[in-house]
Amino acid sequence: MPTSTPGQPVGSRGRCTPLHLHPLLLLLLLLLAHTTSRPAQAAIDIPPNFKKPPEITAQPESITAFSSDIMLTCEASGNPKPTFRWVKDGVEFDLSSDPDLKVSTGSGTFSVAAEDQPISQYSGNYTCFASNELGTAVSNEVQITTENPPTMQKEKKVRLKVEAGESVVLRCNPPASIIPPNIHWMDDKLHHIKLNERVVQGLDGNLYFAHTKVEDSRNDYTCNMRYARTMFSKEPITLVVNPSNSVVRNRRPQMLRPTGSQSSHHVLRGQTLKLECIVQGLPTPTVQWVRKDGEMSESRILKMNNGTLLHFSDVQEGDGGQYQCTASNSQGTATHVYSVSVEAAPYWKKEPLSQLYAPGETVRLDCEADGIPRPHVAWSINGNPLSEIDPDPRRSLQAGVLSLKNVDYSDTAVFQCKATNKHGSIVTNTYVYVIELPPQILTPNDKRYTVIEGQKAELECKSFGSPRPVVIWENEDLDSPLSPPRVTQLSRGALQIANVSSSDGGLYTCSIPQAKISISAMLEVFNRTEIISPPLELRVQRGKPAIFTCIAKVDPRLDHQLLWRRGRQKLMGSSIDDKYTFEDPDLIVANVQEEDKGEYTCEIITDLDTAKAIGSITIVDFPDPPSRPQISNPKARSLTLSWTPGDNHNSPVIEFVVETEVTGVETDDWEVLLRVAGDTLRANIPLRPFLSYRFRVLAINDVGMSKPSPASKPHSTPATAPESNPVGVRSESVDPDTLVISWEEMDRQSFNGPEFQYKVMWRRVVGAGPRWSFNFTTEPPYVVNRVGNFTAFDIKVQAVNELGPAPDPVPTIGYSGEDVPLEAPMDVGVALINSTTIKVTWAAVNKETVRGHLLGYKIHLRNHGPQTRHHREQPARRERELPREVVVATGPNEQKRMVGDLQPYSRYTISVSVFNSKGEGPASEPFSFHTPEGVPSPPVSLELDSPSETEMTLHWKPPAQPNGVLQGYLLQYQRIVVTEDSPMQVVSIDDPEVTSETLKQLDPHSRYRFHVRGRTSTGEGQPATREGATTLDGAPPANINISVGETFVNLSWPSGERHRSVGFHVRYLSKNGWGKGWTASERLDSSQSFYQLQGLQPGSQYRLELIYNNTAYWNREIQTEGAGVMQVQSGFATEGWFIGLVSAIALLVLLLLILCFIKRSKGGKYSVKDKEEGHIDSEARPMKDETFGEYRSLERSDNDEKRTASQPSLCDDSKLCSDDGNLDDYGNSHSVQTEVIMDESLASQYSGGGGGSGIRDGPETEAPGGSPPLAPPAYTPTNHGLPISSPLLD
Fold first, then answer.
1. In three state form, how does the secondary structure of 632-696 look?
2. Which of 188, 429, 508, 1198 is 20 to 30 A from 495 (CA-CA)?
3. Where are the beta strands (DSSP E) in 1048-1172?
4. What is the C-alpha separation between 1014 and 1020, in angstroms, rounded?
5. Cα gap 1163→1145, rounded to integer Å
6. Full DSSP string of 1205-1273
7. Which residue, among 312, 308, 302, 305, has the nearest Cα to 271 in the 3D structure?
8. Tens of pLDDT, residues 1248-1257
9. How far, in Å, CA of 329 to CA of 681, rounded?
10. Is it the case that residue 1002 has pLDDT exceeding 50?
């Protein structure tokens, strides 16, 4: 809040000339910023620490006391602090003279402190006076009424005995008291007695039963009364309801409370009024309320206690009038009229406001009160009646307005206006404060007001000064916002805007022009909260859920909360029984029971407004079954059935269903006989002869259907002759020379008497005369033999019983059985329309030869195949297709028919026959005709093959149906262009044997559409169509993606669309010393898109290359995953120098042996011959076995690190690894496959202890014609199973 300085007043928007003020006035201005809230009736705020007349802030209230608990409150403000005194019954009441009174410090409030003392002496009328040096304020006059606490008299136990259906009243009779007690009827377990339309508690506390039931019997009906500080329980009442020995009779309603047809009630304005109508009757009467002389207020007048109580809250003068309650049931109605008259204690219509006045001003105090009867208004000054004060020529009183002219400082006082009538009095205090002060605005600047559209907004501008400052309001457009009556400036300076709209929002300015000070206020208008989908009045069956929905439209700038109430109680979610579930915007009430019925309120709450809507739950159920169905007024063909309705359980009966059970018929089930309205309790029932009936009644309401009532007594009707004949009389003759007469059987209820049977009658239509043949039977059909084929008869069937026949039936015509036709149609002719359609004609047959109902003609067409056949058609196909026959049926009156879908260039035979329901007659003599030549069907297939980028070869098969002599083909093609059609190219082929054609000079970058049509002398047939593009030259893949594992590497690449596949190799070189050189894969195809290179060592480095046409065009270095493996170093036995040395020694030994052998062969024998031979053998075996055994032992010792000779190489199970030149041949579908088989010993000999495989690194030599190489590929030693390269063995 801004503070004031001598040069800048509070809230000023501009500069102001400094004022020279008295120090006391300066202190006052400094304190203006700390103003306190104004009392409700005051017009101004006076700063603290400044003298102020007394004002009553807490009024005493009238009380009724039963003990010493008496307290009268009287609080007042003022400066100096006021002193207090009391007047009782017009006499000064000295509080200090009574030791039993305790007075609150600093106020006029006192209470009775003594307990267990008589209090009657405190009864009387009291008035409080609060005074200081500026005047005296007076409180309202209040009354203390004392009364002894109510006591219960000893009473006898009550035992009532009634019969079921009778009415009864259980009386409470509470002790009399000025304040009536709250009464509740309970059982001995303190459970409330369940109240409903039948059992009602009256305002007098009694419990009323409209009619009793056996289950009402109990011995603990207890009336409990609660007074202010006392509770009583009456002796329990025992009620015994005996079942009635006779049928319980329904009774029309009768008033139990009030009695008579009308009564009067007087009530004061603002009080609460309750009118009740409690009735007896059976069934339970329903009570309706209406106002006879006007409309009832829906907001203040509520129907309670199941409609028996009319509750008025805050009664107004307009509520006076006549109110009628009407109780009704099925037996009648009862009414009572209340005449309500409304009077009023005095109330203010206009109150004078406390004001500050400058000396010399005129005071005008306007006081106006109203009431019934009209109150008397009197003025007092400082508590002294005006009549007891000396007259003053400046003072005048006219029509309740007190005027005082030319006031001075001594006129400061508190004025009282008092209004009195027979119902009480009211007093208002108004002070006149004569003082001289500069103007000031006390309301803070830039205050923000928020309001909902349609509400009332008040923009405060509290001012202070004497004389009172003149306040002016302006809006942000510098226009005066005042436009009565919607916008009003109140006397205290506030701007009041009624029925605010969004256009009223904005900035407002309050100013005091003479002081050049102002403040601003911002008004923000929000949209009104509206409930657009309120909860409904639900009618729910017991045990089922009820769902209320509440959807509202809320201003998005406002937060809102959805709150549900039942009555006045806020509903909360329950985790124990899940009774209430809140799923915004729904409230789900689970398992609805009797205690859940009532009103449910949806509240949408924002910071500024609240929207409410009310729904309700009414417990409904299936109606109880009707009772006592009774038969009256019985006649031969009718009777009257009446019944008594059951309880409808809050859902009116819509209709009653009367069902009947007829004995002696096919089924003994209950069937619906008729339905009547829900307000009908009797029905006239039609009957049929010779039957025994029982009846029962069911009731239907909105919930469903009741159980059936008990069945009535049986009622039988006398027999009579049949009244009707069977229907559906007809001939069902099938076999020739027979007449089969059939009809619909009559039900048992139409027999009307005993010995029921059918009289079947027939006669020929032509030549029989009037005589009828007849016979009797008990069921259909009836067969008459030897009557001829397809002869017309008059037939009829009559119902007959022991008492006579039914009325003579009307005959109908029927025919005897049919036979197949005898003759074929004549003059059959054919006219050719085109190659696929003919027109067939014939002459009508003689109907007598049809021997039945003529159903039509059948045209038989038989296709014997083409006139000549294409030389390419196969005999097996010809046998499978021929002959083919088509049958076309016509109507009975046709003699020509167009027949289509014939095969062109074919030979047909045709014949015509006639048919009836019995079958088809003989066909006419067949004759042949030929259809002319037509256009061929599309070629069977069309395939495309592209030998180069600019050529396309089309392959097709001849049409399946040439439809003539095939003369050749028409080939059409064109480029497919999005924007416009390209020209069609045409190639004509005159040789029908040609089934392929190569098109050249095509655009390799375009797609084409190709059409091939067959051609006969008639024209061109439908085309076979294909779209395609030429195949582009291929290239090896370039965009290679690799993925490395421990012992493998995956290579992937995109395959070129429309590109020809080419071959290439992958080769790799170990950079860790594994192997002796490059190792190549088998031939790969560019269309593969993926290849996995296997057999690598974990944790090793390799160099990869792709080879095409013996040239490496891509390379990459990789590192396999996993831990590296140490290379086992070769022993000196594998070194070249050691092998050379061993070879030299072996050669030397061999030479020596040869010399010895020559010498021996020349000159004789040596003595050491056997030893030498043994030596040779012993030396030779190690060379053959032990040497290889040495390498094998190495293999066995290192088998965890080396591969065996049997392990397949990279070329195993694949095409032969060939050079890149041969790969191109492979791409052109020429392959070379070589199977390599090597003996294990030979592999061991060349492997040096480790089996392996490899392929050539250089080009292969291939025999002419693609034969295998002359020598198998060499297998070289490997290191740890990895293949290395080696030259080809010779």
1. ECCCCCEEEEEEECCCCCCCCCCEEEEEEEEECCCCCCCEEEEEEECCCCEEEEECCCCCEEEEE
2. 429
3. 1048-1052, 1063-1070, 1079-1080, 1084-1085, 1090-1094, 1101-1108, 1111-1119
4. 6
5. 27
6. TTS--TTTTSSPP--HHHHHHHHTT----------HHHHHHHHTS-------SSPPP-BGGGBPPSSPP
7. 312
8. 333 333 333 3
9. 13
10. yes
- DSSP strands (E only) in 937-1047: 942-948, 951-956, 968-975, 985-989, 996-999, 1008-1015, 1024-1028, 1041-1044
568 Cβ contact partners less than 8 Å away, ≥ 6 residues apart: none
Hey, which of 359-363, 655-659, 1218-1222 has the most confident mean pLDDT? 655-659
Return the structure tokens found at 1058: 């429309």
The radius of gyration of the chain's CA atoms, rounded to the nearest angstrom, is 62
Please list, in sequence order, all residues whose beta carbon lies within 8 angstroms of the beta carbon of residue 715, skipping any fewer than 6 positions away.
631, 634, 639, 687, 692, 693, 694
Q: In 3D, which of 462, 460, 452, 458 has the Cα closest to residue 487?
A: 458
Of 117, 118, 141, 121, the closest CA to residue 129 belongs to 141
| Structure tokens belonging to residue 282 | 């059976």
- Asked if residues 517 and 441 have their Cβ atoms less than 8 Å apart, the reply is yes
What percentage of the chain exceeds 70 in pLDDT? Answer: 82
Q: Which residue has the tokens 């180069």?
A: 948
Total residues belonging to the chain? 1290
854 and 916 Cβ atoms separated by less than 8 Å? yes
From the list 463, 459, 518, the residue with the least C-alpha distance to 487 is 459
Biggest distance spanned by C-alpha atoms of the chain = 194
Structure tokens at 128: 């409080």
Mean pLDDT over the full length of the chain? 81
**pLDDT value at 856 more than 60:** yes
pTM, rounded to two decimals: 0.42
Q: Which two tokens stand for residue 170?
A: 């259980």
Dist. CA 120–CA 4, nearest whole Å: 58
CB 1205 within 8 A of CB 1244: yes
How far is it, in rounded angstroms, from Cα 683 to Cα 639?
9
Tokens of 246: 């006779």
Pairing relationship of beta strands 804-805 and 135-138 according to DSSP bridges: unpaired
Cα–Cα distance for residue pair 282/212, rounded to 1 Å: 9
Q: Sign of dihedral through CA atoms 1150, 1154, 1155, 1160?
A: positive
Tokens read off for 914: 């006639």
- Alpha carbon dihedral 177, 183, 187, 191, in 10-degree steps, equals -140
Query: Is the bond leading into 781 cis (omega within 30 degrees of zero)?
Result: yes
Region 277-295 average pLDDT: 92
Report whether pLDDT(973) > 60: yes
d(C-alpha 502, C-alpha 730), whole Å: 84
Q: Is the dihedral of CA 1181, 1185, 1191, 1196 positive or negative?
A: negative
Q: Going edge to edge, which strands form the sheet with 424-434? A: 355-357, 424-434, 413-421, 376-381, 384-385
Q: Which residues pair with 916 in a beta bridge?
A: 919
Integer Cα distance of 582 and 561 in angstroms: 12
Asked whether residue 1183 carries a pLDDT value surpassing 90, the answer given is no
Is 269 within 8 Å of 342 (Cβ atoms)? yes
- And the tokens for 1233? 């496959």
Q: How far apart are CA 629 and CA 646, in angstroms?
A: 12
Neighbours of 466 (CB within 10 A): 19
CA 366 – CA 418 distance, rounded (Å): 12
Pair 39, 57: CB distance under 8 Å: yes
Give the tens place of pLDDT for each residue, 494-523.
999 999 998 889 999 999 998 889 999 999
Single-letter residue type at 115: E
Question: Is residue 40 very low, low, confident or very high in pLDDT (cuts 50, 70, 90)?
Answer: very low
Secondary structure (H, E, C), 31-57:
CHHHCCCCCCCECCCCCCCCCEEEEEE
